[in-house]
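Q: Here's a chain of 236 amino acids. Please give me its 3D structure as tokens.
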Amino acid sequence: MCGRMNKEEYPTWRELYEYYNLFTAEADRLDAAWQTGDLKPTDPVPIVAHRSHCRRLTMARWWLVPRYARELDSQFSMFNARSDKLIDIYYRWKASTPRLRQMIRSAYLAPLLDGRRCLIPMNGYYEFKGGQPYFFTINGARLFSVAGLWEWNKHIRTPEWPDGILSCTMITTEPNSAAAPIHDRMPAILRPYEYEDWLSTNTAPEHALSLLKPYPGNDLTVRPVELGMNDQPSLF
């Protein structure tokens, strides 16, 4: 699973808007740079999603909060969603009768069926092996995108989310040859020409699920990093 993202030298808001061909912008934020450091589950992270027929950039809590939840519960690790489990739950739901479908409950099924899919921008992520953190990047890419799902819960309000919680989860898949020696999962990295198919609410779930494959490029690189303060990864 992926439990840390990095935002060292992270792109500015303006770069994100230009990269994703976004149509809405807050002028006072366009030139703002992100603070450097690492992102961990429950932190707010940027996501790109389709809303009102266009791509929009917003912040979401990195730990999916189901729509039916009435309180924050960390019992389940919902910052990652396995692609194989998504595929299994979807096809079990599809093969069921209308009555049985109502009994299939998954926090991830409704966002998938309703097209609440998103992109999670990053410039690198960490995995651990034997207590050693490794940092994954794509050569020559200042920015790349991982498939995710988002959800809105209006019932839970916190000081950080006073109007209700917008949350997301990162989808993981089988590792490619570069990631396999370190971990048995990797984020579902999408290529730019797949962005629209993943984001569009008109894309059938079957096609969206078919995009969740190990990253095929040979430009994914990995290098060891050291632990910094509070045992958090830091780049050499």
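Q: Can you summarize the key feature?
A: The helical segments are 13-19, 83-95, 98-101, 109-113, 195-199, 205-210.
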